[in-house]
UniProtKB/TrEMBL annotation:
GO CC list: cytosol
Superkingdom as given in the UniProt entry: Bacteria
Residue span(s) of domain PUA: 280-359
Native species: Amycolatopsis pretoriensis
Residue numbers binding ATP: 17, 176-177, 217-223
PANTHER family for this protein: GLUTAMATE 5-KINASE, ISOPENTENYL PHOSPHATE KINASE
Function: Catalyzes the transfer of a phosphate group to glutamate to form L-glutamate 5-phosphate.
Catalysis: reaction(s): L-glutamate + ATP = L-glutamyl 5-phosphate + ADP
GO MF: ATP binding; glutamate 5-kinase activity; RNA binding
Name this polypeptide is given: Glutamate 5-kinase
Length: 369
């Protein structure tokens, strides 16, 4: 067995995320038998002294049938109405199901502000920590009923990766209706399952598509992004079918395993690299990309070829290469309006008060490639 799978099998604190397509069926809503099978697997792992936070989708899917809605609505207001009804059903079903094992569940509904803003991040951290210390199983979902387009995570895969870091998880298990990551959309015919993803180059160029069930949100695109986020922050990830939950949570043998990066990012650097919202973009020339990504240097004005967005000193911005591919994120030390006349110029050409790093190395997180 690979080291990654061993680490997942041994993990003491895990985030398990289950998708809508694994819990709900178009037309008939929540599938309690499948939910019970998932709870059986989680309860078994909890009985072996693990702490589990469950991120469960399915509120919108579960709310459709009771509201006589045929398929997943496109407009936000009807999605929110369905989520309002479905979340109650979901919470009730989990409370009943975990109750079979005398386990207590706590519901945690989050909006992106709760994770993206540093002060709220701490607050959420305290809530999870207390719930786990009290022996409860936190069941998390996005607070769909109040989340507007602007403040939505939009997909629970990303939410699960952020929660995994937030609670200091040793593993993230993503359970879906598909049994792993394929090198192309399995609906398109002959494709091969990847069993181990050791580095970014293993997934470069593979084709990932959207949901096939019409119930899920992000499809494989969001699952792969979430797996990269968590693995990049040092957390091993398993992507498997929900129908294999028992094997996934006991031996970590099925599905696709994503090896974690060697170092775990601090909370601040994780927030900077993955959770914070960015308000602008700096385009770097090749030399600057090498300096900031490989040599971990500060970004100087001389290596910047373009500026976009409306940001102020202290905001988080994306750093992109000459092909507009994101290579890092960092806290910018100038306002957007100040930069156009500085970029491309070396420090000795600049007035003394502007001779400082545009993004200091301590405030810069290279993205894993
Ligand atoms: N390369 C790929 N490998 C595996 N699945 C893929 C790939 N590309 C697209 N998919 C689709 O993504 C779906 C899973 O996404 P989704 O329905 O959003 O799941 P969930 O509801 O669990 O979040 C699969 O059923 C599959 O059809
Ligand atoms: N929060 C939404 C699910 C959003 C989502 O990401 O769904 P999925 O792709 O099935 O994990 C709900 O409960 O319906």
């Amino acid at each position: 067995m690979s080291g990654t799978r061993e680490a997942i099998a041994r993990a003491r604190r895990l985030v398990v995320k289950v998708g809508s397509s694994a819990l709900t069926t178009a037309g008939s809503g929540l599938d309690v038998a499948r939910l019970d099978a998932l709870v059986d697997a989680i309860a078994e792992r909890v009985s072996r002294d693990a702490q589990i936070v469950l991120v469960s989708s399915g509120a919108i899917g579960a709310g459709l049938a009771p509201l006589s809605l045929g398929k997943r609505p496109r407009d936000l207001a009807t999605q929110q109405a369905a989520a309002s009804v479905g979340q109650l059903q979901l919470a009730h079903a989990y409370a009943e199901s975990f109750g079979r094992y005398s386990l207590t569940v706590g519901q945690v509904l989050l909006t992106s502000d709760d994770v993206v803003r540093r002060s709220h991040y701490r607050n959420a951290q305290r809530t999870f920590s207390r719930l786990l210390a009290l022996g409860a199983v936190p069941v998390v979902n996005e607070n769909d009923t109040v989340a507007t387009e602007e403040i939505r995570f939009g997909d629970n895969d990303r939410l699960a990766a952020l929660v995994a870091h937030l609670i200091g998880a040793d593993a993230l298990v993503l359970l879906s209706d598909v049994d792993g990551l394929y090198d192309g959309d399995p609906r398109d015919g002959a494709t091969r399952k990847l069993t181990e993803v050791l580095s970014e180059s293993d997934v470069d160029g593979i084709s990932v598509g959207m949901s096939s069930s019409g119930l899920g949100t992000g499809g494989m695109v969001s699952k792969l992004a979430a797996a990269r986020t968590a693995a990049g922050a040092g957390i091993p990830v398993l992507l498997a079918a929900a129908s294999e939950a028992s094997a996934a949570l006991t031996s970590a043998s099925p599905g696709t395993a994503f090896a974690p990066a060697d170092t775990r990012l601090s909370a601040r650097r994780f927030w900077l690299g993955y959770a914070a919202d960015t308000t602008g973009t700096l385009r770097l020339d090749d030399g600057a990309v090498t300096a900031v990504v490989r040599r971990r240097r500060s970004l100087l004005a001389a290596g910047i070829t373009g500026v976009a967005g409306e940001f102020q000193a202290g905001d988080v911005v994306d750093l992109v290469d000459t092909k507009d591919r994101p290579v890092a994120r960092g806290v910018v030390a100038f306002d957007a309006t100040e930069l156009p006349e500085l970029i491309g110029r070396s420090s000795h050409e600049l007035p003394e008060e502007q001779r400082r790093e545009v993004v200091h190395a301590d405030d810069l997180v290279p993205l894993r490639r």
